[in-house]
DUF6297 family protein (Tessaracoccus flavescens), 248 residues
Amino acid sequence: PTRGSGSGMTALILRDVQRVFREPGRLITLIATIVVPYAVQALGLTSLNPPISALVLMAALIPFMNSLRVLTRTKGLQRCFPFDPGQVKQAAMVVPGILALVWSLAALPAFLGVAGGVEVEPLRALLTTLVTGVAGLIAAVRWVSAKPADYSGPIVSTGVGAMPPGLLFSLLRGIDMVALITLPVVFGWPTWISFLIALVAFMVLRTGIDRDQLMEQQAEQKQLLEEERALRAGNAAPKEKIKVQRKR
């Protein structure tokens, strides 16, 4: 084991950096995926290059998010950190975000049309490349931090057999983010729409809205409100005194 360094959020970021160099195979795979936007552009699929490349980038970034997976699925460990859960998740996204940015810059000539296909203006190509990188990053975060399917509940009969209700939707996680962020670019809309959608998705994923957690918080707040009303009405049950038996 390698000793960590830094303190606070920096320690989590540096730990992810150590993991990158500990398993260089994942980094080699990420570098190899840079060929995809060049190949798609050479085939003349300029409009479909952002979603296809974003899906490939998503698959390449998922192995770099082990910290985010552990922190989002282990609530007890997340509470051990003296920081806001959103800050902890954001720190776990720093290294994958830097890798996505480097990947986007390396793929910029492909979106310019250097490898063939339709030539695009430099500013338009740069914005499209950034949209692709952001879409791949957000999709990877969505895939890793999404709640797994619940196998303890009732199952639903489908054409391919019985399966939990949430399993079908879990197969689409990540792909939905790619579609939402890159479709405005595919349709020729302004790129700021894609960036706005990505910002909203990032804020939602950062806060980690969980239905079960919201229900628990609502029940706790309701109980506190009832206790406060009982205290005001003077009908609150007296607190039990702790009796300690002493040896004589």
Observations:
- The longest helix spans residues 122-145.
- The two ends are 55 Å apart (CA to CA).
- DSSP finds 14 helices and two strands in the chain.
- Strands lie at 156-158, 161-163.
